[in-house]
């Protein structure tokens, strides 16, 4: 196991910026607004001679009500699992009373810590550090995380506290099937993640829009590995006004593109909304496997459940291949069926075909139902071969394929889907016209053919 380094401090001191610098990524959402980070972010730092896990946490505001209490609990969990804590402060704001409280708590826990004074760019370094000398720490590390300065000094302060035994091989940060959980705000995405993990990994609140960033969590369930991606809720574009929410939506769309299977979570009591259909459209644009999940199923009456099923059948007719699962994330019912549906969707998405079985299927489909005539000629479908996976792609060669009716293309898609038992994944069909071997060639007549042609012309004129 790699050692863990937790970044803690007041809100808006630059912890997420430092996290991105240490991990050399842009995974953490960064903006000049306090309280942006609410959950724990994990990444691998390769600076220095020994890699370690770095944890970004929410800011400790000192408030004892609302979502601040939930954020503080996440910070305490991060400190509890850390090998060393990096206490990040703000040189421009100076030493605050909350800084003293955080440092006092770290000393009570007995955790080794390093005090990093961030935002020293443009300031006199010695004067900035002098203000924090009252903390009674033997060494203060100056930083300018937004410019990447001072990272080497921070690494020199961290490395003496890391274990001497370095792991022979750095484990991958993500393993298994990447599963993104998307949906509108307050439908229970974070509750589902916590229930699958069996712990309070992400902040859960009745306040809509609690999750602002995409959180990746590796888990192992029934002997299989997954990486769950908890995303921010996506509202209608007309209701999105704050810049932070716009960045959160961009992160969600990026998570859809990075996932292998997408779980669309919706509120069973509200049925399928226009925004749910829009999110499915984004999933289809990325050609990702899909599982539709109706949450809060336990709170519905028999009549409401029937209405929800009718709504799913009517509004999601364009993704009939996606499985529908009904769960209660709060009580944990239906989760086994959900993960089985994820496994089936992923297996279908990566399924490989041979050219011979595709050609046999195409021949059977063509003989069972031939395409309608186009200007008196029937399009010909000659042979097929695989074109890739995730989603499975079938390339069909023939003539006049550009004139195939959309209804016939849907027939072929449904035939292949039924023939190969594909569920939960889109199927891509690519049609290619064969080149005409006589294109651009002129048939030159011989002398005898020319004389025969002239005789026929004269005979036609006499008649």
UniProtKB/TrEMBL annotation:
<dbReference type="InterPro" id="IPR015946">
    <property type="entry name" value="KH_dom-like_a/b"/>
</dbReference>
<dbReference type="GO" id="GO:0016787">
    <property type="term" value="F:hydrolase activity"/>
</dbReference>
<dbReference type="InterPro" id="IPR032859">
    <property type="entry name" value="KH_dom-like"/>
</dbReference>
<keyword id="KW-0547">Nucleotide-binding</keyword>
<keyword id="KW-0342">GTP-binding</keyword>
<dbReference type="InterPro" id="IPR016484">
    <property type="entry name" value="GTPase_Der"/>
</dbReference>
<feature type="binding site">
    <location>
        <begin position="56"/>
        <end position="60"/>
    </location>
    <ligand>
        <name>GTP 1</name>
    </ligand>
</feature>
<dbReference type="InterPro" id="IPR005225">
    <property type="entry name" value="Small_GTP-bd"/>
</dbReference>
<comment type="similarity">
    <text>Belongs to the TRAFAC class TrmE-Era-EngA-EngB-Septin-like GTPase superfamily. EngA (Der) GTPase family.</text>
</comment>
<feature type="binding site">
    <location>
        <begin position="9"/>
        <end position="16"/>
    </location>
    <ligand>
        <name>GTP 1</name>
    </ligand>
</feature>
<dbReference type="InterPro" id="IPR006073">
    <property type="entry name" value="GTP-bd"/>
</dbReference>
<feature type="domain" description="EngA-type G">
    <location>
        <begin position="177"/>
        <end position="350"/>
    </location>
</feature>
<comment type="function">
    <text>GTPase that plays an essential role in the late steps of ribosome biogenesis.</text>
</comment>
<feature type="binding site">
    <location>
        <begin position="183"/>
        <end position="190"/>
    </location>
    <ligand>
        <name>GTP 2</name>
    </ligand>
</feature>
<feature type="binding site">
    <location>
        <begin position="118"/>
        <end position="121"/>
    </location>
    <ligand>
        <name>GTP 1</name>
    </ligand>
</feature>
<dbReference type="InterPro" id="IPR031166">
    <property type="entry name" value="G_ENGA"/>
</dbReference>
<feature type="binding site">
    <location>
        <begin position="230"/>
        <end position="234"/>
    </location>
    <ligand>
        <name>GTP 2</name>
    </ligand>
</feature>
<feature type="domain" description="EngA-type G">
    <location>
        <begin position="3"/>
        <end position="166"/>
    </location>
</feature>
<comment type="subunit">
    <text>Associates with the 50S ribosomal subunit.</text>
</comment>
<feature type="compositionally biased region" description="Basic residues">
    <location>
        <begin position="451"/>
        <end position="463"/>
    </location>
</feature>
<protein>
    <recommendedName>
        <fullName>GTPase Der</fullName>
    </recommendedName>
</protein>
<keyword id="KW-0690">Ribosome biogenesis</keyword>
<dbReference type="Pfam" id="PF01926">
    <property type="entry name" value="MMR_HSR1"/>
</dbReference>
<feature type="region of interest" description="Disordered">
    <location>
        <begin position="433"/>
        <end position="463"/>
    </location>
</feature>
<dbReference type="InterPro" id="IPR003593">
    <property type="entry name" value="AAA+_ATPase"/>
</dbReference>
<keyword id="KW-0677">Repeat</keyword>
<keyword id="KW-0378">Hydrolase</keyword>
<feature type="compositionally biased region" description="Basic and acidic residues">
    <location>
        <begin position="433"/>
        <end position="445"/>
    </location>
</feature>
<dbReference type="Pfam" id="PF14714">
    <property type="entry name" value="KH_dom-like"/>
</dbReference>
<feature type="binding site">
    <location>
        <begin position="295"/>
        <end position="298"/>
    </location>
    <ligand>
        <name>GTP 2</name>
    </ligand>
</feature>
<dbReference type="InterPro" id="IPR027417">
    <property type="entry name" value="P-loop_NTPase"/>
</dbReference>
């Amino acid at each position: 196991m790699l050692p863990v380094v937790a970044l803690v401090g007041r809100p808006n001191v630059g912890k997420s910026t430092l996290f991105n610098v240490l991990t050399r990524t842009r995974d953490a959402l960064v903006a000049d607004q306090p309280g942006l980070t609410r959950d724990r972010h994990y990444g691998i730092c390769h600076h220095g001679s020994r890699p370690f896990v770095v944890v970004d946490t929410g800011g400790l505001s000192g408030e004892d009500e609302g979502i601040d209490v939930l954020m503080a609990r996440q910070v305490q969990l991060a400190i509890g699992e850390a090998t060393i804590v990096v206490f990040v402060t703000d040189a421009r704001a100076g030493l605050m009373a909350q800084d003293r409280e955080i440092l006092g708590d770290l000393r009570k826990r007995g955790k080794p810590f390093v005090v990093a004074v961030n935002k020293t760019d443009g300031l006199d370094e010695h004067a900035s550090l002098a203000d924090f000398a009252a903390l009674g720490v033997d060494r203060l590390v100056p930083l300018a995380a937004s410019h990447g300065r001072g990272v080497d000094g921070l690494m020199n302060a961290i490395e003496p506290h890391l274990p001497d035994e370095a792991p022979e091989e750095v484990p991958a940060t993500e393993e298994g099937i990447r599963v993104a959980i998307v949906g509108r705000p307050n439908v229970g995405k974070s509750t589902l993640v916590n229930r699958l993990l069996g712990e309070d990994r992400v902040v859960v609140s009745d306040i809509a829009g609690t999750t602002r960033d995409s959180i990746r969590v590796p888990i192992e369930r029934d002997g299989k590995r997954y990486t769950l991606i908890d995303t921010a809720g996506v509202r209608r574009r007309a209701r999105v006004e704050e810049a932070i929410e716009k960045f959160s939506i961009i992160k969600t769309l990026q998570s859809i593109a990075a996932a292998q299977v997408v779980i669309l979570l919706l509120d069973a009591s509200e049925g399928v909304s226009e925004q749910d259909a829009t999110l499915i459209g984004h999933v289809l644009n990325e050609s990702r496997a899909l599982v539709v999940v109706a949450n809060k199923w336990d709170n519905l009456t028999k009549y409401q459940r029937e209405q929800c099923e009718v709504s799913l059948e009517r509004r999601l007719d364009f993704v009939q291949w996606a499985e529908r699962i009904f769960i209660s994330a709060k009580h944990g019912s239906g989760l086994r069926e959900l993960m089985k549906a994820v496994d089936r969707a992923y297996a279908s998405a990566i399924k490989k075909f041979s050219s011979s079985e595709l050609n046999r299927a195409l021949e059977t489909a063509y003989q069972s139902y031939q395409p309608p005539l186009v200007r008196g000629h029937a399009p010909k479908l000659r042979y097929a071969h695989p074109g890739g996976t995730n989603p499975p792609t079938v390339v069909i060669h023939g003539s006049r394929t550009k004139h195939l009716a959309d209804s016939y293309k849907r027939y072929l898609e449904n035939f292949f889907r039924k023939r190969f038992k594909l569920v939960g994944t889109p199927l891509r069909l690519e049609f290619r016209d064969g080149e005409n071997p006589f294109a651009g060639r002129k048939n030159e007549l011989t002398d005898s053919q020319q004389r025969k042609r002239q005789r026929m012309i004269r005979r036609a004129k006499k008649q």
